[in-house]
Amino acid sequence: MTTQPTEQNAEVQSEVRGGVGLITLNRPRALNALSLGMVRALMGVLLAWQHDARVQAVAIRGNGKDGPFGVFCAGGDIRFLHEAGSKGDPKIEDFFTEEYVLNHFTHNYPKPYIAFMDGIVMGGGMGISQGGSLRIVTERTKMAMPETGIGLFPDVGGGYFLSRCPGHVGEWLALTGETIGAGDAIAFGLADGCLPAAQQAEVWEAIATQGFADGAAIEAIIKAKFVAASADLASLRAQIDHYFSLPTVRDIVQALEAADSDWARATAATLRRRSPLMLHVVLEQIRRARHLGLADDLRMERDIVRHCFFLRPGQSETVEGIRALAIDKDQQPRWNPPRIEDVTPEMWQPFFESPWPTWAHPLRMLS
Question: One GO molecular-function annotation for this sequence (predicted)?
Answer without folding.
Answer: 3-hydroxyisobutyryl-CoA hydrolase activity
